[in-house]
Structures are given as C-alpha cells and as structure tokens.
Amino acid sequence: MTDRQRVVVAGDVIDDVLAVPIGAIRTDTDTPSSIRFTPGGSAANTASWLGVLGTPVDFVGLVGNGDAPRHEVRLREAGVTPHIGMHPSLPTGTIVVIVDGEHRTMFTERGANAALDPAAVTDELLAGAAVLHLTGYTLFGADDAAPFVDLVRRARAAGVHVSIDPGSAGFISDYGVQRFLADIAGADVVFPNLEEGVVLTGLDDPRRIASALTERFETVALTLDAGGVVVATRGSHPVLVEAVVTSIVDPTGAGDAFSAGFLSEWLRSGDALLAGAVGADVAARAIRTIGARPVL
Asked: What is the pTM of this model?
C-alpha cells in the first residue's frame, strides 16, 4: 500500500491482574483460580502484537515513577521501540480482570495514563510513519480534547494515516457520543466492537452500523467476537469475515491483537478484507493464552 511501514502507537500501558476462575465463581467464599500479573493496556498491547508480527513500531506512554524500565524491557522483547515517561505522583495504571468464559469484568485505575500528553508524540516521531494508532482511552482521561485533536491534525498533515480503537462503550456514553465523534474526526480507520458501534450509531445491525460509520471514516472493521468482523470501506458494501474457530482461554486483548493484525496486513497490501482475515487470525492467537500480549 505504501513504502512507509512504521506505526506509532500512543496510549495506555497497564499492569494487568488477570483472574481466571477454575469452575463457577462462588460469592462470599473462595473460588480456585489461575491468577497472573502481566503487562497490558490497549495501546501497548497493540504495539506488542505489531512488533511480534514484524511491523516497525514506536510506542508512547506514561507510567508511575520508577516503572518505566520494566515496561520498556517487555516492549523491546516484543520488537517495540518504547518512549515511556514517568509521572512523579500518579501510579502506573492497573486493571483487575476477572475472566468468566467469553466475558470479562474489569476494575480499572487509569493512573498515570490519564496524564499522558498527546504532545509526547512529537513531529519527529511522526516523520516517515505510515500510521498513528490511538485509542479512545486517551481522550476519555483528558481534561481538554484539544491536544488529542491537534495530534490527529499533525499526523494527517505529515501524511500519516490515523487509526482509532474507540475503547469502551461505557466511556463513550459518559464522554458524549457526538463529542467523541467530533474529536476523532480525521481518522481513516476505526476498530469498534459491536457494543461500541451500537453506541456510536444508535443502530443494532452490524452491517448497517459499519455502513453508517463509513460516512465518517474511510475504513471500518466492526468486531463481533465469535461472530467474526464486518469490514466496510466507503462506497462499498460491508462484508462479514468469519472468525477463526479456536478454544477460548482468556479473551483479554483480543481486540488489540485484531487491530495489530489488521494494520500489519493493511500496510502491506492495502486490502481491507484480507486485513480483516489476518486480524481475526491474530485475535484467535490472543484468546488461546492468558494475558493480552503475545507469548514471547
């Protein structure tokens, strides 16, 4: 699609605490579980999958004081070039994830992520990049959307495509749907899941949702979990790409892995349908293991 291949990812980096119950969850008593402490964060997860897939990728994020080195090590192991700042008082973001089959319950403290300044993505980092990938979480935590909006503008002015994972249907509702859509205007590619798509459009049919979103964005990949992904480009009919059938160990990070797989192929071929199929395959790899990052 382009001679440029490098992706710049900016956004959340998280310490995940993943609890996968062994059997049914029992209230007010003990439930035997598998518990893991793993690095996470939607943006950092996507960067890690991109790195493992062989795509050159820079990651920009913010953690608590003293925590940058350990997160940088894990990102470098995945092939990512990290640019991580440290906040003097806020802790590193943390999420406790309770996995129940295909469903997850998440208790979130965004911590230092809420203070990430989009200006940390410098014009030097954008120079020569192919894609800037962002998530809605960076907007949701901001007191002022102007720096985020300006980052999208700077990227477009530099000839960089912009992709956005909306991040959270609940947070979109809290933020305001029309306000959110206005603030991410200028993005080329969006990766909503079905719940986010419903909130963003007020529609409930996946193909209609994807088609409606192409009125605002050139390319839409609407993920449907086990139902696959509806891929739509402006001016064409939405197409369903089947999910890859696999065992589900932990669905955490499947959407982040999908975004990485999609972008890696889209950069190579420019074919959105093929990119959707590659994204589905990478998402299937993600749900077969505990944790949101690739196994190294």
From this structure: 0.93
